[in-house]
C-alpha cells in the first residue's frame, strides 16, 4: 500500500464494511456472488469482513488501510482493542511517509503481547485511549511518539507537523511524550527531535519529508510559507525560503488528473506555475523544485539545492523550538 503523500485525507466510513457470516445467514456467499458484469461483488478486506468491490475501488491507500483497522476491530476477540502506531495514525488521518503496513497495531496488557498474522501487539504503560471514528486509539501525541520511535524521524515529523497544523496537539504534548521515557530509552532522542522541529507551517507530508531530509543532510534551516510580491502584486507563499533561494515541493498528484478536472485545467495550472516561477526569478531568487521521489531518497533533492547554491553545513545549526535534554543529545 502506498504512503499518504498529502493532507487531503478523508475518514473511512466503517458502515460500508459487512461481516461475511451475516451475509451468509442471508444466503449470500461473499466470495462467490458476482455483479452483472461478471466481476466479484465483494472485496475481502480481511478474513471475515468484506465490502462492495465498487466501494473498495474508489478508496485511496490511506482509506484502505483504515478499512483494515476497522475490519480488525469488528473481528476482535476479546475486545475492544486500543489501536496504536500507524493504525492510530490512519484513524486520526495523520500522514505517513513510508508505506502503510500489512498488519494492524494495538496496545495490550503485557500478558497478551503476542503478535499474530494480522496483529502487532505492543505493551505500553500509561497509553491514553481516545474514541475517534468509532475506535479506541492512542491520543495524537502518543501516536506521533510511537511513529517517531518505531518508524523513524521523517514519519514522526510529518505526523507532528500535520497534528499541530490541525490543532490536534501542541508542542508541549510532544515534549511530555519524550520526557515520560527514561533517559537513553530507545527512540527517545528521535521523539525529542520531532518535538523540537515540528512546525505547523508545513502544508503537506511532502513538505515535512523534505524538511526532515534537509535537517538530516545538514542544509541551512529554511523559513516556511514566506510571502513574495513584485510590482504586479502578490506572487504567493513558497514552501521553503533561504536568502536568494526558494524551494518548492511538487506533489505527484499536483499536475495529474486526480487534481485537475480536465487536461485543459492541468495545462492552465502548469502555465500559471511557470509564470509564478518566472516572477520569483525576476526578483533575484533562484528556484529549486523537486517531487516526492527526490525528497524520499534525499540525495536527488540535495543535488537540486546544491545546484542552486545552497550547501550543507559542517554542523547542524537549526533553531530548536523546545528544551534540550543533554542526555539524549545526538
Task: Give the secondary structure arrangement, pairings included.
Layout: E1 18-19, H1 20-25, E2 42-46, E3 49-52, H2 53-57, H3 61-74, E4 82-83, H4 85-92, E5 104-108, E6 119-123, E7 129-132, E8 135-138, H5 140-150, H6 153-165, H7 171-179, H8 188-197, H9 205-216, E9 223-230, E10 233-242, E11 245-250, H10 263-282, E12 286-291, H11 292-297, H12 299-307
Parallel strand pairs: 4-8, 5-6, 11-12
Antiparallel strand pairs: 1-3, 2-3, 4-5, 7-8, 9-10, 10-11
Organism: Luteipulveratus mongoliensis
Protein name: Transcriptional regulator, AbiEi antitoxin, Type IV TA system
Describe the protein in words.
The protein is α/β, with parallel strands linked by helices. It folds into two domains: 62-200, no CATH class; 206-307. Helix content is 37%, strand content 18%. The strands form three sheets. Strands 6-5-4-8-7 form a five-stranded mixed sheet. α4 crosses α5 and α5 (140-150) packs across α7. It is globular, with a radius of gyration of 22 Å. The two termini are 33 Å apart. The relative contact order is 0.10. The model is unreliable at 1-6, 255-260 and 322-330 (pLDDT under 50).
